[in-house]
Amino acid sequence: MSIVSVLLLAEISPVPEHPGYIAASAISVKEHQEAAEFHKEYKEHYLALAQYHESAAAAYGKSGDQKLKKHHEEMAIVHEEMAKTHEKAATTDEIEAGRNLHR
What we know:
The protein is mostly helical. It has one domain (28-101). The chain is 77% helix and 0% strand. The radius of gyration is 18 Å and the shape is elongated.
């Protein structure tokens, strides 16, 4: 690896660790609350991935590699959308937990 590559990689944020998985659908209040927390963790994970890709895009842009810059910009958008999806899912689970609480 050349010195330029090492310096370039030093400018890129580290990739965030992936959170765990939920294996079953939520039914009870507690399960919906846990699912909401899960989705909030995933939202944060995908926001961190978007940040990573934005960082990588900036670094590759500075180095003149427009193809990798564009790739990372596109991936940042994808991960921002995934974060929005998990935010909506967390909200849904919070609503469902509230509904089940009052049954």
